[in-house]
Design a protein that fits this description.
The chain has 411 residues and is mainly beta. It has a single domain, classed as YVTN repeat-like/Quinoprotein amine dehydrogenase (Methylamine Dehydrogenase, Chain H, 7 Propeller). It contains 2 helices and 30 strands. The strands form 8 sheets. Strands 1-30-29-28 form a 4-stranded antiparallel β-sheet, with no helix packed on it. The protein has a 4-stranded antiparallel β-sheet with strand order 2-3-4-5, with no helix packed on it. The radius of gyration is 23 Å and the shape is globular.
Length: 411
């Protein structure tokens, strides 16, 4: 005969499972109701954006009210795309690989005169690492949202991708950095002439779990009204060993690195120069200060200068070019890589942080009172790469996964 109390363990187990389903995952999700929508970018096997082609690399709001975005191919896929969204739906605009063969990533977007979009391309690190792969090089191209017309501006450096760009609309120039060689260049939009300002960082090839990448290549360029370009980089110095230090068969010198240095290239100059300031860094936390110690993101501050986020420690700081001053505002979360910034409709500066292969955190900075706040993440599986404000002042948070979503956050 069954005991009449046998239901008690089952009830306790049910209660435990219920608790686990609610609280068992790591805490930190954004308050329920704040994320009001999530929109799938990929369209399945029928396309036009198939699985593996929807990892978002950049988004930008233009004057017609649409947010235009770019993607890269992942998991061996072969196409990258331009899309647009209004925070309610996603529309496919252009398969870039179909017009620029061999390009699997759109790495950066900028707005030029007349609301024209300019962009740059690259490819998989594995292809860049294989000279026999025959990669011809990354392109600059333009796209007119009003007419749908696009123009190929050509390859900048043979066998090299392009990591980031900035537009000087007044002087008709595009500045960019090649990847992985780390050369700063300019492209004259009117004449098509390219100028190479030389290597601004020595490529540091890293192979981790079979995947190759190059550390230290500048991820963002900052351009002021005077046409001066700013970026963060590092330098390597060889120091000769003393006779007592040299071992038989060993090296006679060793390398030291200084990272997070802010350089500038003024309009008309032929060579970048050191501004004399470095970005905020947690001293003593890493054995190698070079490790991704740079600026991951930047946005013009409303009262002048630039707000910047660091790679290595996730600090928010303000850089004033006129005085070459750095004001450290600290960090609002425990991880590193403050990789994207955007102003919300409430006037606050919103920030996206976190490692590329882990949860992405949303934070905000209130300039009126100087407070930093960590809001959590949109979902415990979301791996995001960029945020942008839409025409309604909402924050769009885009994933970099095989099937990527855009999360809509209401400030």
């Amino acid at each position: 005969m069954k005991s009449k109390y046998t239901w008690i363990p089952a009830l306790i187990l049910y209660a435990g499972l219920s608790t686990l389903s609610t609280y068992g995952q790591r805490a930190g999700k954004i308050t329920r109701g704040a994320v009001t929508n999530n929109i799938l970018i990929s369209n399945g096997p029928e396309g036009p954006i198939q699985g593996g082609e929807s990892a978002v690399t950049d988004m930008i709001l233009i004057k017609n009210g649409w947010v235009y975005g770019s993607t890269r191919a992942t998991w061996g896929a072969g196409n990258c795309h331009i899309f647009r969204t209004d925070g309610e739906k996603v529309e496919h605009i252009l398969n870039v690989t179909s017009i620029l063969a061999g390009q699997t990533s759109i790495t950066d977007l900028c707005i030029g005169k007349g609301n024209i979009l300019f962009a740059c391309t690259s490819t998989y690190d594995e292809i860049l690492d294989d000279a026999a792969a025959g990669y011809k090089g990354g392109h600059l191209f333009s796209f007119d949202p009003a007419t749908g017309k696009h123009q190929d501006l050509g390859i900048i450096a043979s066998g090299q991708g392009i990591n980031c760009i900035a537009i000087d609309s007044v002087r008709g120039k595009i500045f960019g950095v090649t990847y992985p060689a780390g050369h700063l260049f300019s492209f004259n939009i009117n004449t098509g002439k390219t100028q190479d300002f030389g290597e601004i960082m020595t490529p540091w090839r890293v192979k981790d779990l079979g995947r190759v990448s190059w550390r230290g290549v500048p991820k963002v360029l900052m351009l002021d009204d005077a046409g001066t370009v700013y970026f963060s980089t590092y330098y390597q110095k060889e120091i000769n060993m003393t006779k007592q230090e040299i071992m038989i068969g060993g090296s006679s010198s060793y390398s030291t690195y200084s990272g997070g240095l802010i350089y500038r290239l003024a309009s008309g100059d032929e060579q970048p120069v050191f501004t004399g300031v470095t970005i905020p860094t947690q001293q003593g936390m890493d054995s190698d200060p070079l490790y991704e110690n740079g600026i991951a993101s930047a946005i013009r501050a409303q009262d002048g200068g630039f707000w910047c986020g660091t790679i290595n420690d996730g600090f928010l700081f303000k850089f004033n070019p006129s005085t070459s001053a750095v004001i450290n505002k600290g960090k609002a979360f425990q991880y590193w890589n403050l990789k994207s910034l955007a102003y919300g409709g409430d006037g606050k500066l919103y920030m996206l942080g976190g490692r590329d292969e882990d949860n992405s955190w949303i934070m905000c900075y209130d300039p009126s009172v100087g407070s930093l706040d960590c809001l959590g993440w949109p979902d415990n599986t979301a791996q995001c790469s960029v945020i942008c404000t839409d025409a309604k002042g909402r924050i769009l948070i885009a994933e970099n996964l095989r099937h990527s979503f855009i999360w809509v956050y209401e400030p």
